């Protein structure tokens, strides 16, 4: 035993295969030691709850502790027949569509305008991006106040130009759009910065060539800038769709899911069936239906991206 | 995704030079298009400032003036700091600020250490199982945090961590996206620097601490800033794991204020502004790093 270890450590005279062997062994120990702290947390707080949540979804586990018996697929069957679940899922998809479009287009327009060579670039970046740094609760407090039917600034301004007051957060037809407005204000700056960085990386030579050919500003934007931004746009849309599907904070804080459940999203429904309804098992089942949706969307987007770049 | 993650150093430097005006010949011509664009952007930027401004004006009014219809931009009785004073004296805001500061700082420190160690191993050390680990970590990016709240809550109950700092902190320290960003950065550091040290007989830890980390300061700073902002603003998890009013973080505490104060608009806005202040300061100090970081660690936003 001791002799072999001796030769391994006496590195100078050791034959090459032996040194190779010892290095390999050392690398294995080092590799796993460097990974260990991360893996402990990763296992405890990601992998384990992911598996445990799946197990819970097959049981009747509740917050009161009673009845944690195995139910098989009963929770899933119940969820699929639950109109509130479908309604929340529909609201989530609706929000995703009506928020992603402005969040991408407004960001693109902002970046294109700022990138025309405006003075004081830092000022525009500061104004558009600053809201992104606020906690959701701050944003919600700001906008609940702005949207106040009698005392809010928005209805006040609308009144000045002769538009009747809107009940922004209490009208089921309008409430989701009000959430979109607040979300646009809050997070568009992030997409704006991604677009701006990408635009500033487009080689100037492209534009010079186009100018020689007599292409104007619009022409340059559509035939040079936009195509060059293809990859960026795909990435922004993917990130935005995935972020929008997870929406919870600002809706819960601004409308509580109301009026009449018209803005309740799937994450809020998970939260409510678990913590208000005390049905952890049922709530876990809905979590996994939601997870399935996210996986499906991710794979679909991955497939589309693959095809595009191939 | 690949576009933002590759070549962090180069990309950000270029976008940093651009605003200084060395880049574009187009900008020098003061064309009508440029003037129109400036006006549009200025109007948009002013619109973006309105919620801040309106919150500030409201917070500086007396409660009576704040709730008076029709609304006025300048209150008749003048501006007052009453709302700020009341909120700071009566509310839990100082305690919540401390909770947020402490938990976010610990989350940032732990995340940075464990992610950098893991990223180094994935980037540099050739060990059995590395590819599998890499795949699992990348795959885990797909898991949406809301899916985990139910089992994590149950786990925290059995760990007796409800209403504790550890309960708030521990589940937030896993950041697969950050491991990925750091690995990409380490991949670009020339191997020769380390090989020289390895031949000299320096251990892995020493190389990591003395060679790799100093070269990675910008990316470590970007990751730290992002993790901190994310932890500071996190709502869902602290909201679930805390009940005790003294243990709430600032964003969660603000949610309870709204219902507790009822219609005290000036105090609501004062609280919101006080909660916004620390991050606005962080932004003013680290504007460059944050904006650079967005283009290098675009994933952080999700």
UniProtKB/TrEMBL annotation, chain A:
Location, primary (coarse class): membrane
Entry keyword annotation includes Cell membrane: yes
Gene3D superfamilies, per database record: MetI-like
CDD domains on file: TM_PBP2
Domain ABC transmembrane type-1 positions: 89-301
Pfam families: BPD_transp_1
One cellular component (GO) term of this entry: plasma membrane
Gene Ontology terms describing biological process: transmembrane transport
Disordered: annotated segments: 1-23
Entry keywords, A to Z: Cell membrane, Membrane, Transmembrane, Transmembrane helix, Transport
Family statement: Belongs to the binding-protein-dependent transport system permease family.
Full protein name: Sugar ABC transporter permease
UniProt source species: Arthrobacter livingstonensis
TrEMBL record, chain B:
Record domain ABC transmembrane type-1: where: 97-286
Keyword Nucleotide-binding found: no
Stretches for region Disordered: 1-24
Bias type Basic and acidic residues, positions: 13-22
One Gene Ontology cellular component annotation held by this UniProt entry: plasma membrane
TM region positions: 33-54, 101-120, 132-153, 165-186, 266-286
Signal peptide: none
Pfam families assigned to the protein according to its UniProt record, in alphabetical order: BPD_transp_1
Bilayer topology annotation: Multi-pass membrane protein
Record key words, sorted: Cell membrane, Membrane, Transmembrane, Transmembrane helix, Transport
Family label: Belongs to the binding-protein-dependent transport system permease family.
Name under which the protein is recorded: Sugar ABC transporter permease
